[in-house]
Amino acid sequence: MNLLDAMTAFVRVAELGSYTRAAETLNLSRTRISRLIMELESHLGVRLLQRTTRRLHLTEAGESYLASAQGILQALEEAEAELGAGSTEVCGRLRVNGPMSFGMRFLSPLIARFMVEHPALEVRLDLNDRRVDLLEEGYDLAIRIGSLPDSTLVARRLARCRLVPCASPEYLARYGEPQTLKELTEHRCLRYRTTGGSEWQFGGKRLTVHGPLESNNGDVLTHAAEAGLGIAHQPSFLITESIRQGRLVPLLQNEEPVTLGIYGVFPARRHLPAKVERLLDYLAEAWGDPPEWEREMGLSPIAQ
Predict the structure, then answer these.
(1) 248-298 per-position pLDDT tens digit
(2) Which listed residue, of 31, 49, 207, 226, carries a Cα 20 to 30 Å from 64's Cα?
(3) What is the average pLDDT across 86-112?
(4) Who's near 241: CB < 8 A, 6+ residues apart?
């Protein structure tokens, strides 16, 4: 038995409450995870986990061992990071999480190029629109857009975007172009469900909008706006191509837009692993300030 592997498997199962999720984060089979924990329990001579058909429970011995094992693994991580702090080599496994639409357009192509430059690096890139728990789910880095809740995580701003109201030329020809925020509230608005939905913000002004479509995916709203269904209020990175090619028209450019930060978020450590630091530098340089999606749309610079 490899004691370190078994300890890692036990800690991950205890933190996630699931053999299956632990196996996914460690890139092992569920059978292998189960075998490692059985061998660890045999080695220690105690039962660490109480298994039922529905849930996993730590035994008293398991709770005590978990605290010690977490400390040991954290100390090992910090020791490795400290040794690698002066090294320029980027290698090993890196788990990254990012939002779906932004990730497909602007994150995944850069990850691929970064890996070409660093062939000793292995990456698992997961894209979804939920706020993952980096510590529990084993991520080294997450890309997040918008306000960040207070937490023990560390955040580095990499780029910015703005929310832009937009509509298709066909919609504007049929319904007219709103010239004021009050007129905007009288239009058919396409709403993003997870960020306030029916409340749109322009600078310090908030207004309630209504419309025929609400979705938790920005691409759905972009496609609907291009089809002429209504007015969308979209992050600039989502509509760069649509505006450049004339499928959408930016509206109310005299109003102050809401600006959102795009952050790299990672667990707090005394020494940031070289692979994380180098990737953050790479992304920040590639996206630029102003970012490429703002430059391509020809929008006025975002205020600092």
Answers:
(1) 999 999 999 999 999 999 987 666 788 999 999 999 999 987 787 877 666
(2) 31
(3) 87
(4) 247
Length in residues, the chain: 304
- Kindly provide the b/e burial profile for residues 190-219, where b requires at least 16 CB atoms within 10 angstroms of the residue's own CB: bbbeebeeeebebeeeeeebebeeebeebe
Q: What is the pTM of this model?
A: 0.73
> Cβ distance 206 to 199 under 8 Å?
yes
- Per residue in 24-36, pLDDT (tens digit) is 888 899 999 999 9
Residue 83's pLDDT band (cuts 50, 70, 90) = low
At 196 the pLDDT is 56
Residue with tokens 């010690």: 68
Closest C-alpha among 137, 154, 164 to residue 280: 154
- Token pair in block for residue 267: 């667990």
The token pair that represents 136 in the structure block? 């529990």
- Residue 96: closest CA among 289, 287, 280: 280
Tell me whether residue 78 is exposed, middle or buried, using C-beta atoms within 10 angstroms of its C-beta: 0 to 12, 13 to 18, 19 or more: middle
The three state secondary structure string of the chain is CCHHHHHHHHHHHHHHCCHHHHHHHHCCCHHHHHHHHHHHHHHHCCCCEEECCCCEEECHHHHHHHHHHHHHHHHHHHHHHHHHCCCCCCCEEEEEEECHHHHHHHHHHHHHHHHHHCCCEEEEEEECCCCCCHHHHCCCEEEEECCCCCCCEEEEEEEEEEEEEEECHHHHHHHCCCCCHHHHCCCEEEEECCCCCCEEEECCEEEECEEEEEECCHHHHHHHHHCCCCEEEEEHHHHHHHHHCCCCEECCCCCCCCEEEEEEEEECCCCCCHHHHHHHHHHHHHHCCCCHHHHHHCCCCCCC
The Cα 179–Cα 188 span in angstroms is 15
